Amino acid sequence: MVAAPDGDDRNHQPRPAGELEFVYRLFDEMPLMVIAMEGAEHRIAALTGVYRQFIGRDDVIGTPLLATFPEPLGQRVSAIFDRVFATGQPESVRDFRIHYDRPDAGEPVEIFLDFDATPRRGSGDAVTGVVVHVQDVTARVRERQAAVAQAAEAQRRHERARDVVDALQRELLPSGLPILPQADIAAAYLLAAEDTAAGGDWFDAVPVPGVRVALVVGDVVGHGVQASATMGQLRAVLQDPLDETGDILAALAAADRLARRVPAARAATVCVVLLDPADGTLTWCSAGHPPPLIAGPDGARFLPTSGEGPLGTAAKYTLSQDRLAPDEVVLLYSDGLVERPGRQPAAATAELAQVLSDVVAGRGFHGDTDSSLADRACTQTLELLVRQTGHADDITLLAAARRRPVPPVRLGGPGTPPPLAVIRDAVNEWAAGLGAGEEDRVAFLHAVVEVFTNALEHARPDTADVTVTVTADIDDHGEARLAVADNGRWQERAKPGDDRFREDHGLGLAMAAGLTDHLDVDRRDDGTTVTVRRRLSRPARLLTADRINTGILPTPRKQADLLLILDQPNAPSSRIAVHGPLDAETVREFSAELDRHTLGGTHDLIVDLTAVTHLASAAVAELYRTRPGTQQRQQPLQVYAPAGSTAHHVLSLVGLPHTTADPHHGQDTPQP
Fold it and tell me: What global pTM score does this model have?
């Protein structure tokens, strides 16, 4: 049998099939990414030209895989090839997210790949290496992600279908995790399936006396309404003694008594860890639950079991102690994390320790710089373990690490008060450093602007030396305190007809009170101090299988403190879009634009507040503005503020009518 290597060229003598030069050239020119590796260390023996072009390197032949590409170690890629070499069984994985350092990119590159790894055998049928066919499916994954992001109606249908599930989970689980000065706490909850209404897993983080925090993860046998109701009972029974004294054994004794009375609670497991972030002391007890795992840059270790068995089984419980180093994280988890399909518990447990150690040491995914150590310990560990095996049960993770306290805010003093933009940036940076959730951040930003504006307008100093100070800090139990102090004398509210009269007088402090847990006004002869307090929290991640492999979203650019009011001339009716802050410094410009676009209040106007970054009381009053002596709104406005936006949050608080549905939805409305 012969073959013409260059096609049907009758002027050349045919060469024998399998001629070495031809086979080598054919392999190198294949439009496929193929790499062949030899030995247990996966020394690169051959790879196609397309693969060399893909990795941007031409000098890898003869080098071990991990010496050439160290990234696969922490991202669990080499583990696939290890298993194929050891077992002789082929493996395939799909949509595998990889970060690697590409020389011509200058920074880590994120890609998604399909792998088909096949053993290569030598004499005696022994496995001598691994051949891998690689497909870059990044474009396919990105297109799918874009399609999901853009399919708003499909997403809404999905959210409606899961409303009951999410509502039940959020009612049964903590609404948020406490934010403490010296402790970084995060949690993730992965549902077993889309149609699972609720499970028996739960987590909790309870601040206790003495600057400590109690971490709890538990699991009730079974699923469904009964398991969920039992879980809620156990969580409440554990919370009270922990919150009051931090006594772990007293809390477990109360839960054990409940388990003996309530059949559905019998054999429930729970682990309670008490962390003192000041010195890292850990005190714990595990009632039949998987032991806590501590991981640092140099490795991981499981804490020994300190309880004899689950609740309601007449088991005895004792306390054990250890210490969490400043660069370590402690992870509590449910058994769904180690009882994954295709994994023996012992192997899965060792894999968990290795993966968490890699994540803590920074050998996992790069670029999650905006996430805290505890958050990465939950989310990256979950993705790296579950994406290869899937999961058959709910999975709960609760992580904690020590951290340095975030410096408090200290602004102002004698002289010209700082601009609002400086105050907003400082408070925003402080709240972000603490890890506060979006709702807390928006509440504090609005509160500080309202109280600061109130100090400038209502407190008139007797001398030319104006002093206004802004301070913000957080106590040991997670309550944030914001105070604005001035050296002026409180001025009585002006009445209609007075040049100083403004319709939004009093609205600012009312908004600040509504956005926080407590507001106090201390009026003295030497000045006034307004203090607001709010307990901060960060949301836990309630996830489904399609939300744990999304990659790293681009970090949004910092929003400028510049007000932009954009016409939308191609909209079906008169419409403007407002971008940036609407506060005491920009409200005059906003008022003038409303007058211009409504022709002095005689024409309708849609005001799109989607992109408003701050909505102060002065702007709210402008939206409500009335003619002197009448009850009619001067400007016939239709205010649009979608759910979740800053404007929607504030307008809902003050009760100003607005629509959360785009008035021009489905019509040819240009995006601003």
Answer: 0.70
Measured distance CA(130)–CA(616) in Å, rounded: 64
Measured CA distances, 179 to 62, 374, 405, 442 (Å): 51, 12, 11, 16
Of 42, 40, 105, 108, give the one whose Cα is nearest residue 75.
108
Q: What is the pLDDT of residues 536-576, one digit of tens each?
A: 988 888 776 666 665 544 444 445 568 899 988 888 889 99
Residues in the chain: 672
Q: How far apart are CA 275 and CA 207, in angstroms?
A: 10
Q: pLDDT by residue (tens digit) across 53-90?
A: 887 777 888 888 887 777 665 777 888 899 999 999 99
For 586, the token pair is 């920009």
Contacts of 27 (CB under 8 A, 6+ apart): 34, 46, 48
- Report which of 109, 115, 81 is spatially closest to residue 96, judged by C-alpha positions: 115
| 119, 84 Cβ separation under 8 angstroms | yes
Task: Give CA–CA dist 227/267, Å, rounded.
Answer: 12
DSSP β-ladder status, 293-296 and 395-402: unpaired
Helix (H, G, I), strand (E, B) or coil at 164: helix
- Helical pair 507-515 and 438-458, crossing angle rounded to 10 deg: 150
CB 219 within 8 A of CB 200: yes
Which is it for the CA torsion 581, 582, 586, 592, positive or negative? positive
Report the DSSP pairing between strands 293-296 and 518-524: unpaired
**Nearest CA among 192, 217, 202, 172 for reference residue 548:** 192
Q: Which among 551, 169, 543 has a CA at the least distance from the CA of 337? A: 543
- Which residues 6+ apart lie within 8 Å of 386 measured at CB? 190, 340, 395, 545, 548
Segment 498-522 shows an average pLDDT of 73
What single letter denotes the amino acid at residue 164?
V
Q: Tell me, what DSSP letter sits at residue 661? A: S
Q: Could you tell me which of 614, 658, 626 has the C-alpha nearest to residue 640? A: 658
SS3 364: coil
Strand order in the sheet with 293-296: 299-302, 293-296, 329-333, 395-402, 183-190, 541-543
pLDDT above 90 covers what percent of the chain?
Answer: 35
- What token pair was written down for 649? 């949050």
**Token pair for 116:** 């088909």
Displacement of CA 668 from its chain's centroid (Å): 34
Q: Is the pLDDT of residue 166 over 80?
A: no
Give the SS3 label for residue 315.
coil
Q: Which residue, 58, 65, 48, 56, is CA-closest to 134?
A: 48
Beta-bridge partner residues of 607: 576, 639
Positive or negative, the Cα torsion across 578, 579, 584, 590? negative
Q: Give the sign of the dihedral formed by CA 68, CA 70, CA 75, CA 80.
A: positive
Q: Which 3 state secondary structure label does DSSP give 136?
A: strand
Under DSSP, the state recorded for 124 is G
- Give residues with Cβ within 8 angstroms of 598, minimum separation 6: 604, 605, 635, 636, 637
d(CA 249, CA 318): 7
What is the three-class DSSP state of 81?
helix
- How many CB atoms are located within 10 Å of the residue 30 CB? 13
Phi/psi region, residue 431 (left: phi>0; alpha: psi -120 to 50; beta: rest), is alpha
Domains (range + CATH), the chain: 31-143 (3.30.450.20), 174-399 (3.60.40.10), 409-538 (3.30.565.10), 560-654 (3.30.750.24)
Which whole-number Å values give the CA distances from 582 to 43, 482, 565, 648, in the listed order? 61, 21, 11, 14
| 8-17, 88-97, 549-558, 642-651 — most confident range | 88-97
Instruction: List, in sequence order, every residue forming a beta bridge with 474; answer none if it has no partner.
Output: 480
